Amino acid sequence: MKPVQYYPSYIHHDLMCVYSGRKPPNLHKWGPGVRDIYAIHYISKGKGTLETKNGVFPLLAGESFVIFPEAEVNYYPDPQDPWAYVWVEFKGEEAQSLLSKTEFKKDKPVVAASPMNLEPLFPSIENVDVKPFERMRSEAQLRLLLSYYMEYYPSETTIPSMDYVRLAQEYIEHNYWRTTLTVSDIVNAVKVERSYLFRLFKAAAGMSISAYLTDYRIRRACELLKSSGLSIKSVACSVGYSDQLYFSKRFKKATSYTPSEYMTLHSGQAER
């Protein structure tokens, strides 16, 4: 008998929605067996049971369970009140990382009823003949679904202190151009107690949040003055200063040059 030829896949996805579907109330069951993908099931009504090597988990409407790759499972409906559910199968390099941000674990593959009906958020991809834009939409919808699981069932792992500093820095780097940006806005975005963040930030960055914001704005202004061709007024606005005079004072204090001097200096260097 001629051996079957298998062809490697040349398409790589960080997160790929493989298949999804909706199961109406019936006595369908699966297992015991293993899968090579991740699969989230959301119970829309009825009852059922999931069995793994870590235990037996009764399931009710509103609850969810995950099948992990290569983990043996057996799941079946309640004979008197069979469940209806939706599911999505997925894989990719990001799959494990994203699920690790939720309560789902191999020894705890079940979460309690969600605060909202998650069924409408499940992607719809029920055949292999999927157009590229449909594949992209299904992956985007899968990310949206996982974001709700992260919100409602966050991992017990406490966010490291340095992450608060990183989040504050990222918020500044994404919003420095806003003329109304305040330190309070940054604290509120990070969602941590104000004085605690101040202490963490000073220890990690060697300066206050306010000083970091000014420093970032001036560094960005230097880049624009060197090569953008923008007027000083436009540069000031672009880095979060509505008052050109105030911007010029802050710039000279930080660099020892006025914006026009800095621009002239670097335009001369460019000509050489």
TrEMBL record:
The keyword Cytoplasm does not apply. Keywords: DNA-binding, Transcription, Transcription regulation. Residues 166-265 form the HTH araC/xylS-type domain. InterPro entries: AraC-bd, Homeodomain-like_sf, HTH-like, HTH_AraC, HTH_AraC-typ_CS, Tscrpt_reg_AraC-type_HTH. GO terms for molecular function: DNA-binding transcription factor activity; sequence-specific DNA binding. Gene3D superfamilies: Homeodomain-like, Regulatory protein AraC. The keyword DNA-binding applies. SUPFAM superfamilies: Homeodomain-like, Regulatory protein AraC. PROSITE patterns: HTH_ARAC_FAMILY_1 (PS00041), HTH_ARAC_FAMILY_2 (PS01124). Pfam families: AraC_binding, HTH_18. This is AraC family transcriptional regulator. It comes from Paenibacillus lemnae. The lineage of its organism: Bacteria, Bacillati, Bacillota, Bacilli, Bacillales.
